[in-house]
Specification:
Length: 301
């Protein structure tokens, strides 16, 4: 039986989180992992994942079981910027991918995620000959305008359980949140401002969220600025995602470990009691001694 260091694991259904515990362990009998058509992967991710969006997929892998029911999806994708993969993995898009979406339903019991992820990696290597996988964990909570929590902070628990190298933290940035707590992507905003291909879909999305129609004589850039200044669209500071890197062969595992000096200390959630006891300050000092200059260290308080 595979052992886990974590007391519970997160699952998703209809874009809301659920939890499974060691009281009910995953049993692989009756489950199967295989390549998944993009149409089915898109439908599943948009229905179940908290983001409600689907990335630019290179290959999708599905988890079925028991029987023919799709209960999980791993989407290996291409980042929007060509610099992302070389920056974190040292490899280009021909040899590395991003794990853009990874979601399992609540019927996948405890330890089922790591079982699925290991086999999804095997499928990726067989189909695309990839050598490394980059994945991000988003530590920023999301709430609706009414204050309902739609996405808690993520620390990459599943990646830690699978033995990924913690590579540091992406740069902080400003983002816009829709009324339902979802992120209005910078790419979507850019398409409207620059009147690029796909502007119609982007405008429709903002209108669905409650954006007013464009006024007579108003250009798209001015309309975008007016819409995003409305109270229903919140501008918040994102602290930067946690970055994890997996090597998929012996040489790449060694290269990644050498690149990050064995990997930095895994980020963890900090409790209120630990904050009051000054634990976070002590942890930060210890962590900063390990991180080289220029790395955005994980702030967890």
């Amino acid at each position: 039986m595979q052992l886990s260091l974590f007391a519970s694991e997160k699952r998703w259904t209809l874009r809301r989180e659920r939890w499974v515990t060691p009281a009910d362990h995953f049993r692989p009998a009756g489950y199967a992992v295989d390549g998944l058509a993009e149409t089915l992967a898109r439908q599943y991710v948009q229905r179940e994942h908290y983001s409600g969006t689907f990335p630019a997929a290179r290959i999708s892998v599905g988890l079925w079981g028991p029987g023919p029911t799709l209960v999980g999806t791993a989407v290996f994708s291409i980042p929007m910027s060509q610099d992302v993969l070389p920056r974190w993995t040292g490899l280009d898009q021909s040899e590395a991918v991003e794990l853009g979406r990874f979601v399992c339903g609540p019927t996948v019991k405890f330890n089922g995620e790591t079982w699925f992820l290991r086999r999804a990696f095997q499928t990726l290597v067989e189909e695309k000959r990839s050598r490394a996988v980059l994945s991000f964990a988003d530590p920023l909570e999301r709430q609706t305008l009414e204050g309902e929590l739609t996405k808690p902070a993520h620390y990459g628990t599943i990646y830690q359980a699978k033995g990924a190298v913690f590579a540091g933290r992406a740069r902080p940035r400003w983002i816009h949140l829709a009324p339902d707590g979802s992120v209005i992507s910078a790419r979507m905003i850019s398409k409207i401002r620059r009147e690029e291909r796909g502007i119609g879909y982007a405008v429709d999305r903002l209108r669905q969220y409650g954006a007013p129609a464009r006024q007579r004589g108003e250009d798209w850039r001015s309309w975008t600025e007016r819409v995003l200044s409305l109270p229903i669209f919140r501008r918040v500071r994102h602290p930067g995602n946690y970055a994890y890197v997996f090597g998929l062969d012996g040489k790449t595992v060694a290269d990644v470990a050498r690149r990050y000096d064995g990997g930095y200390t895994y980020p963890r959630a900090v409790t209120r009691q630990q904050l009051q006891a000054g634990w976070s300050r002590m942890f930060r000092i210890r962590l900063l001694r390990r991180l080289p200059s220029g790395v955005h260290y994980p702030r967890m308080w």
